[in-house]
Design goal:
Helix content is 63%, strand content 0%. The chain is mainly α. The protein has 2 domains: 5-64, no CATH class; 70-158, UraD-like. α4 (43-56) packs antiparallel against α10 (145-167). The longest helix has 23 residues, at 145-167.
Length: 172
Amino acid sequence: MGLTLPELSRLGQADFVRVIGPVFERSPWVAAATWAKRPFADLAALHQALCETVQGAGRDQQLSLIRAHPDLAGRAARAGTLSRESAKEQAGAGLGRLSPDEIALFQKYNEAYQGKFGFPFVICARLNQKQAILAGFARRLQHARAREIKTALEEIFKIAKLRLQDVFPKRP
């Protein structure tokens, strides 16, 4: 049996960050800054508090959070160095079974996106499959940078919500 929200709220900051830190890709600062907002009435309140921490952070921290995300089907995936959570999410979206042509297409899109915006393309892979992700690349490459920052953060919030549900699954 896992941790409950009341138990989470009683944890010291280091343990809180150990449990909640992975919810935001390689960005434990989000959990560390949210710890002081305890207690959390429910999972939605915890998610909201985490998202508010990100929204209240400066643009540099927000960009750092976005940049902490790996390219989809990128170098880290091929090298096996993705976080456990990202590896599972990308595999679930079908990105672990790409043909050489598909890998080349993802690489082309990753490079174009990174070149235009200065950060990786972020999309909630658990809510999308390969073709929808590729369509998202094509569509979002047309956006202005400010819109893409907003969109990337919205996608990160979706990812965080699903990861929180993994940490605190509903009990029968």
